[in-house]
Amino acid sequence: MQISTQIRHLGPSQAMIDNPLVSVIIPSYNHAQYIEYAIESVLAQTYPNIELIIVDDGSSDNSHEVIRKYEEHPQIRIILNKKNKGQSAVINQALAASSGKYIAILPSDDWFLPEKIALQVAKMEACDQEVGVVYAAGARYFEDTEETANVYLPVHTGWIARNLIEWGNFIYPVTPLYRRDVFDKVRPSEQFKAEGEAIHLRIAIHFRYEYVDAVVAIMRDHSYNIGKDATTLNEELAKHREWYFSLPELPDDIKALKKVSLLRLYRVKAMQLIIDRGEGKTGRINITKAFKLAPLDTLRRPKLVAAFMLSFLPRLWLISFKKIRRSELFSKAKF
Question: What does the pLDDT look like over 31-60, one tens digit per residue?
Answer without folding.
Answer: 999 999 999 999 999 999 999 999 999 999
